[in-house]
Amino acid sequence: MIRHLLSGADLDADTATEILDTAAEMATVAGREIKKLPALRGRTVVNLFYEDSTRTRISFEAAAKRLSADVINFSAKGSSVTKGESLKDTALTLQAMGADAVVVRHPASGAPHRLANWVDGSVVNAGDGTHEHPTQALLDAYTMRARLGRLAGLSVAVVGDVLHSRVARSNVLLLSTLGAKVTLVGPPTLIPVDIAAALAPGTDVSYDLDSVLPNVDVVMMLRVQRERMNDSYFPSAREYARRYGLDGPRMRRLPAHAIVMHPGPMNRGMEITPEVADSPRSTIVEQVTNGVSVRMAVLYLLLGGNNR
Amino acid sequence: MAYPPAARSSPPRQPSVKVILASADVQRVVDRIAHQILEKTQGAADTVLLGIPTRGVPLARRLSARISTFEDVAVPVGVLDITLYRDDLRRHATRAVGPTELPPGGIDGKRVILVDDVLFSGRTVRAALDALNDVGRPSSVQLAVLVDRGHRELPIRADYVGKNIPTSLAESVKVTLAETDGTDEVKLYGGPTA
C-alpha cells in the first residue's frame, strides 16, 4: 500500500480501483442514521491549508471525522506563517504534535513532496500550485463510474485552462491509468504543447470544442481562473465563453448518455451556463458528495492499517 | 550426487490434517441449526440472519433456505462487514473493506442472528456487535456458528453451535464451503499425529 498520496501517478490501476471500491462502501455510511465509523479512532489528521478552500477542506474534515479521527485545521491566515514561519518549521511543529496524516494545500507546486520528506506521517496532496490534486481526480473517476458504470474505454474531454489546472493534470494521469481516453480542449495559449505526451501517451489535444462534443461520454469543464483574465491568454471573457463555454445548444450536441462535470467553484456564464450546470446531466453536486466518500477511502487506506 | 544430510537423517514432518466434518456432516449440522433456530425463536418470526464475511454469508443463506424448506417462512438474510470495527486494524496492513447489506426491512426491532463459521477468541463477534450498533437497533442478538473451537478471550458465547471442537492453540481450524471454496469440509490442522 502507498504511504503518501501526492500525485495521480502514485496510483496503479489496482490501487486506484481499490480506493474507488472502498469509497463505494464508505458512501453507504452517509445513508445511515449514525454516519460514523471507528476505523481511525485515536489518529490525528491535520488539514494544512496555505490557500483558500471551502469544499476541499470541509470535505477532508468531514471524511476524517466520519472515520473518528481527530482533526486539526490549520490555515495560513492567522497563523505563525504570517510571522514568517517556513513550511519546514510548520511541518516539524505538526510532527511534534503527533500528526498521523497531513492534508496539505499549497500555492507552490511540489510543496507536498517536500513535506513528505520532513514528516513521519502520511501526506495527502490537496492541491499544490498548478501541479496536482489527486483526490479530485479520484472523486471525478468515482463519479464517472457511478454514473456510466465503467471507466475503461470512456472518452473524456477536459475543457478550459489546462495550463494552470492541477485538476486536469491529476485527471489525465489517473484516467489514463484506468483506461479512459482523455482529450484536452482549450485555446492554444492555455494548453501546454508537450502535456499530452509528457503526462500520458494517448492523450489528445483539440482547439475546437464543437468537433469534440458529439464523441465524448464525459465533458469536464475547468474553472477559468479570474486572476488570469488580465494575462492575455485569451482576448476577452466573452470570446472565451463563446468558443469554449458549455451552453444549452452545445450540451444538446452531446450523446444522450453523456455527463457534464465541473470541479467547482463555477463561474456561471463563463465556462458553463446555468442551464447546463443545473441540468440532469450535470454531476456537480454529486461530485461534492462523492468527494467525502473518496477522501474517507483514501484516509482509511493510508492510515487504517500498519503500513510502515 | 549426495543427498543433503538433513533429508537422509529425518524425513520432513508433515503437519497432520484431520477431517472433523465431511460434506454430508456439514449439511446435517446446518439442518440441525436451522431446526434449533425455529425451535428457539418460535418459528423464526421477526428474525434476520446476518452473515459475517467471508464464510458466515453463505452459511446464513443456507440456514435461511433450510428454514424455508422446513417451515415455509422466509427469513431475510444480510451481510455485516466488520473490517472497520476490528480491534487489530493497526497490527496488519490495511484490510480491504467489504460490503454491508441489510435486508430491505432493516434490522430495527428484529431478532438478529449473527452467523459465522468459526468461534475462536470472540473478537470478531465483538466487532460485529459494534458494527450492528451503528446500523440499527435490533430487539435482541443471537449468535450461530458452525464450529466452536474454544479459547475465548472475551465473555461471548454462541446460541447455536454446529460442532464443538476441543483444540490446542497450536492447532488451526479451517472451514471450507461449496460457495466459496468448492467443497464443504471442516479440517483441523497441526494436531497430534495419530
Summed over residues and divided by their number, the pLDDT of chain B gives a mean of 91
**Uncertain residue segments of chain A:** none
Shape annotation of chain A? globular
CATH class of chain B: Alpha Beta
Order of helices and strands of chain B: HEHEHEEHEEEHE
Note the run of SSEs of chain A as H and E: HEHEHEHEHEHEHEHEHHEHH
| Strand arrangement in the largest pleated sheet of chain B | 3-2-4-5-6
Tally of contiguous helical segments of chain B: 5
Protein structure class of chain A: alpha/beta
The amount of helix of chain B comes to 25-40%
The level-1 CATH class of the largest domain in chain A: Alpha Beta
Question: Topology of this protein?
Answer:
The complex is a heterodimer of chains A (308) and B (194).
Chain A: H1 13-30, E1 44-49, H2 55-66, E2 70-75, H3 87-96, E3 101-106, H4 111-118, E4 122-128, H5 134-148, E5 155-159, H6 166-177, E6 181-185, H7 195-199, E7 204-206, H8 209-212, E8 218-221, H9 237-244, H10 248-251, E9 259-261, H11 274-277, H12 284-303
Parallel strand pairs in A: 1-2, 1-3, 3-4, 5-6, 5-8, 6-7, 8-9
Helix pairs in contact in A: 1-5, 1-12, 2-12, 3-4, 5-6, 5-12
Chain B: H1 5-9, E1 17-21, H2 23-40, E2 47-51, H3 56-71, E3 77-79, E4 111-119, H4 123-135, E5 140-148, E6 160-164, E7 172-176, H5 178-181, E8 185-189
Parallel strand pairs in B: 2-3, 2-4, 4-5, 5-6
Antiparallel strand pairs in B: 1-8, 7-8
